[in-house]
TrEMBL record:
Residues 30-93, 110-172, 198-266 form the DUF1206 domain. The chain crosses the membrane at residues 29-49, 74-95, 107-127, 147-167, 200-219, 239-259. This is DUF1206 domain-containing protein. Keywords: Membrane, Transmembrane, Transmembrane helix. InterPro entries: DUF1206. Pfam families: DUF1206.
């Protein structure tokens, strides 16, 4: 087959999937799943800060909480389908978007959502995993490779950059355009915008701390330092006034969850 014809065919099929009502409806459901997970992570973080409970303040901890609820595994299978659809919708942006940065963003997010869908399927099938153990194992294997420490440090700097970008996006309301593009200018409520601002900043702080921990893991060649989001939040809680800070971040993450659920309604697809 002519390479150009193959590319045109792939673009055609990607465009059909990108516009398909069923794919878009399920993809919106993926944003709802993300919202619920962030609400649960925030709730677990607050419980850790107040000493009223434990658990892992991460996607795995949130998924474990859902799995233990009545009908939880069935709900998780629904979440698997929604996240897979969101991954597919993002993947189609590799072919449907004009700007290189938008195509790159679509590809990266497709990988993130596909990975989360796989993790969710593990819990739905009755298994379990830990974000912290996974992060530690991956870091340990990377450190064992030539230039492994440098790769870990670079990864940490990227995660730190993601956190700082999220803080900037929240502080400047950079996310508002995405919502208004789908809802029409002025139709997005101030409560949703406020939740997005606080949520993005709180999420950014958590990722910034995680990035610093990963950099430290590479610098010290200590994979235990890179133990995931839960470790980052617990590190915050160990600082002076850490319990108060952790409660604030936990509430912020929950607000990001509410924003993500609203985004499922307003975002342009």
């Amino acid at each position: 087959m002519d390479p150009r014809s193959a590319t045109d065919s792939a673009r055609h099929h990607a465009d059909r999937a990108h516009r398909h009502p069923a794919v878009k409806m399920m993809a919106r459901g993926g944003y709802v799943v993300l919202g619920v997970l962030h609400i649960l992570i925030g709730w677990i973080a607050v419980r850790i800060a107040t000493g009223s409970g434990g658990g892992e303040a991460s996607n795995s901890g949130a998924l474990a909480t859902i799995a233990q609820a009545p009908g939880g595994q069935l709900l998780l299978w629904v979440a698997v389908a929604a996240l897979a659809a969101l991954a597919l919708w993002r993947l189609t942006q590799l072919f449907t978007e004009e700007e290189l940065k938008d195509r790159a963003k679509g590809g990266v997010l497709a990988g993130v959502f596909a990975s989360l869908s796989f993790t969710t399927a593990t819990f739905a099938a009755g298994g379990s995993t830990s974000d912290g153990d996974t992060a530690t194992d991956v870091t340990a294997r990377t450190l064992a490779q030539p230039w492994g420490a440098a790769l870990v440090i670079i990864t940490g700097l990227v995660v730190l950059g993601v956190g700082l970008f999220s803080i900037h996006r929240g502080a400047t309301k950079g996310f508002k355009e995405d919502l208004e593009a789908g809802a029409g200018a002025g139709n997005v409520g101030s409560a949703i915008v406020g939740a997005g601002m606080v949520g993005y900043i709180a999420r950014g702080i958590a990722f910034a701390i995680l990035g610093v921990l990963i950099v430290i893991a590479g610098w010290r060649s200590d994979p235990e330092q890179a133990a995931g989001l839960d470790a980052a939040l617990r590190t915050l809680g160990e600082q002076p006034f850490g319990a108060v800070l952790l409660i604030i971040i936990g509430v912020g993450l929950a607000l990001y969850g509410l924003y993500s659920i609203a985004r499922a309604r307003y975002i342009r697809m």
